[in-house]
Amino acid sequence: MFEKFLKRSSWTDIVISIIFVLFGALLVAKPNETLGAISIILGIVFISMGVLKLVEYYTSETRDEDYLLTMALIAVIFGVIVLFASNTIVSLFRIILGTWIIATGIMDLQTILMWKQVKSPFWTISLMFSILMMLAGIMILVNQNILLTTLGIIIVFYGVLDIIDRIIFMRKIQDVIKKY
Predict the structure, then answer these.
(1) 35-50 pLDDT, tens per residue?
(2) I want to staple 105 with a disulfide (CB 3.0 to 4.6 A). Which of 24, 69, 133, 139 is the partner?
(3) Coil, strand or helix: which one is 63?
(4) Do the domain assignments include residue 179?
(5) Is residue 180 part of a domain?
(6) At a CB cut-off of 8 Å and minimum separation 6, what does 2 contact?
């Protein structure tokens, strides 16, 4: 049952990362046009993440994963706020995105600890991806004049790294569970 939850959670995270990759590609392809739509896109992304986490929570057999419900509700509420306060959000976009990417990298450290405990060689790869994600987030936070194109590249990079990390995790979770 734990394995099923981890796989479902990983698929949800992959969908979220694909949304980030598409958003990043849009920033690279049409940066000026995208600037006006950032708040709308960001609001939709957060609402989508919240809805996916809500579905994940309500399809869970045990429903003892309260953090999923909390994260889902926060994401949906934040998404709605972003949609209606677009002028403010556009100016805060860089900070929000950088913080989100750093937080994801930090959360991935939990996966890394599990890989290390079972002496899997994948812990070093996951650690590298996590560090790269956190560095990308820091770069977004520190550089106020970052170009939208560069931001788009960083978002695509983050999304691809997260997808690779989740796929590795999903493929190896059975090996980990068999050991315990």
Answers:
(1) 667 778 788 888 998 9
(2) 133
(3) coil
(4) no
(5) no
(6) 177
143 occurs within a structural domain: yes
Q: Which residues are within 8 A (CB) of 108 and not within 5 positions of it... i.e. 6 or more apart? A: 126, 129, 130, 133, 162, 165
* Structural tokens at position 111: 């996966």
The residue type found at 67 is: Y
Q: To 10 degrees, what angle do helices 2-29 and 31-59 make?
A: 170
Please tell me the distance from the alpha carbon of residue 42 to that of residue 124, in angstroms, as a whole number.
Answer: 32
Tens digit of pLDDT for each residue in 45-77? 889 989 988 888 888 776 666 777 888 899 899
Nearest to 84 by CA among 51, 34, 54, 44: 44
Give 177's DSSP letter: H
| Six token digits for residue 143 | 């550089």
Instruction: Show the domain range for 9.
Output: 2-173
Query: CA 77 to CA 88: how far, in whole Å?
Result: 16
pTM as predicted: 0.48
pLDDT at 140: 79
Distance in angstroms (rounded) separating the CA atoms of residues 34 and 140: 17
